[in-house]
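Z., the sequence and structure:
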Amino acid sequence: MPTTVFKFVLNTWQHLYSLQQAIQQPGHSTGNRLRVSGVIRNQGVFNNRDMPIQLTFLPIDNPQYQKTADQQLIFGQLSGNDDLHADIQVNAAVFKELKQNLIEYMSIEGIHILVTIGLSYAETTWQPLATADIVQVDYAMKGDGGV
């Protein structure tokens, strides 16, 4: 199945640091999650409308990734109608580095984090209640003018 690639600039990120929130949100008590969001802009597969996207990274000791028929790793499932979302499991070292990079670079004026996401999705337009395998997730830091 072909891979469809989208890019978006990271708008926000969130990581739970509050003990009060951890206690009040059962199931998320460890605070070990990192949520990033942005908007995929003007893509034909979404009928040329801007599509909000949110990825939640979850650290686990030994992530087990399934593979597509053509042996690509599946990092998660992207789903949604008016906004897209996915949970992506990563090992603790990857999670730590991602969090460290976001903290370091998101606060620098003029630096943007560009996320590239590749989907294994055969349709030409996004269908209601659709899901797609995530087969690529990359990020890069770009200065003004590079986005």
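DSSP finds two helices and nine strands in the chain. The beta strands are 3-15, 34-43, 49-59, 66-67, 73-74, 76-79, 84-90, 111-120, 131-143.

Let me know what you think.
H.
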